[in-house]
Amino acid sequence: MKSVVLVVFLAAAHAVAGTWRFNGDKVFQVRPENENQVDFIKHLARIVKLDFWHPDSAQQVGTQMKVDFRVGADQVTFVQTLLEHHDMQYKILFQDVQEGIEKQFDGEKHVTKRYTYKKYNNWNKISAWTARIAKRFPKLVSRIQIGSTFENRPMYLLKVGKQTNIKKAIFMECGAHAREWISPAFCQWFVKEATKTYGKDKTMTKLLDSLSVYVLPVFNIDGYVWSWEEDRLWRKNRSNNSNSECIGTDLNRNFDAKWGTKFSDNDPCSPTYCGPAKESEKETKAVTTFIRDNLQSLKAFLSFHAYSQLLLYPYGYTFDPAPNQKKLDKIAQSAVKALTSLYNTTYVCGPIASTVCTILVLVLHSTGLMIRA
Ligand SMILES: [Zn+2]
Which Gene3D superfamilies match (predicted)? Predict the structure, then answer.
């Protein structure tokens, strides 16, 4: 993966169907002012089950950082009391998470049976769509199966671009984290835009004539299915863990890149569990095998997440700059500028580790920008 540029996009998403209910659960936002308050939040995470929405885990919490977490209805009063006792100001971003989950479907969950780009689609619809779009645009889109998931679902990858022996390619992955539904929705939208504008829009035509974009619309398919059917807030895949009743590994912490070091967890019950070994998961192995087999042509790896509006580039496991930091930053800056030019959306960019943990807050302070949740 050496020569592959890893870029992580985070898109603003609506939160959160399934049998699991979140009635009365609230999402809190706090901003620890000093190390004592940071330690308090980390302590709180040990005594109360906090579901971190930003950053990914208690480990990543730092001073002057906006920290968003969900608290179960039965713990809300307890958490509020403790926060007040520690003089920590807080905002409540979601008064009732279940209400937010239901709003997502605009009351049309059971009405919208047809596939549509404008609504969230379940895995069966997405899977059927991958076959349909390849059949409809045979000169531009082809479908490859790169492996199977733990629960044996086929992992489909779309190759988008003029179907010739093109040398350069970009790998685009969506849905590593099951609950981040906006991410697979984006991958599908991208393929729609590419096929719709090819031959009409000059830039898109030139791009797709000169490179291929491999689109993995859902990386963590089993988790995605689980988030639809059982637990809307599920994040990891659905593999079993030996010696633990807890299910799942965090796929984007399972890669062979300083595996198991910073910002990942060895506890199978943690939402950021890195797995029993690097590339232990069938889903991760399918992706890395494909990447290694195509390393000659692949020039970038893009991973789409929610939530926040951030464009992140390496490294995530260290605060040290990447050797090509300047180049990465230049590309990120121009991407952010291009994004703003359309709908005035403001993304903040920087290296993963320092942007998520520290710089983000400084940038926000100096510009008065708000990261939308
Ligand atoms: Zn994510």
Answer: Metallocarboxypeptidase-like, Zn peptidases
Spacing, Cα 9 to ligand 1 middle (Å): 9
Q: List beta partners, residue 28.
A: 69, 92
Q: How far is the CA of 255 from the centre of ligand 1 (A)?
A: 14
Q: Which residues of 231-255 are buried (b: 16+ CB within 10 A; e: fewer)?
A: bbbbbbbbbebeeeeebbbbbbbbb
pLDDT digits (tens, 9 = 90+) for 99-141: 988 888 765 555 557 899 999 999 999 999 999 999 999 999 9
Q: Locate 218 and state its tokens.
A: 């859902």
Looking at residue 357, its amino acid is C
Q: How many angstroms does the Cα of residue 137 sit away from the middle of ligand 1?
A: 30
Average of pLDDT values for 175-200? 97
Give residue 180 CA to ligand 1 midpoint distance, Å. 6
Ligand 1 centroid, distance to 236 Cα (angstroms)? 10
Domain boundaries, the chain: 5-15+109-226+285-367, 26-95
Ligand 1: distance of its center to the CA of 274 in Å? Answer: 14
Tell me, in angstroms, the distance from the centre of ligand 1 to residue 177's CA: 5
Phi, psi of 214 (to 5 degrees): -85, 120
Q: How much distance in Å is there from the Cα of 165 to the middle of ligand 1?
A: 33
- Position 16 scores a pLDDT of 39
Q: How many angstroms is it from 66 CA to the middle of ligand 1? A: 17
> What is the reported pTM?
0.87
pLDDT tens digits for range 232-243: 999 999 999 998
Cβ pair 317, 354 in contact under 8 A:
no
CATH topology of domain 5-15+109-226+285-367: Aminopeptidase (3.40.630)
Alpha carbon 285 to its chain centroid, in Å, reads 18
d(CA 262, CA 33): 23
Q: Specify the pairing of strand 90-94 against strand 67-71.
A: unpaired
Residue of 367 and 287 predicted with greater confidence: 287
Name the 3-class secondary structure at 233: coil
CA–centroid distance, residue 365 to ligand 1 (Å): 24
Q: Tell me the fold of 26-95.
A: Alpha-Beta Plaits (3.30.70)
Phi, psi of 48, rounded to the nearest 5 degrees: -125, 145
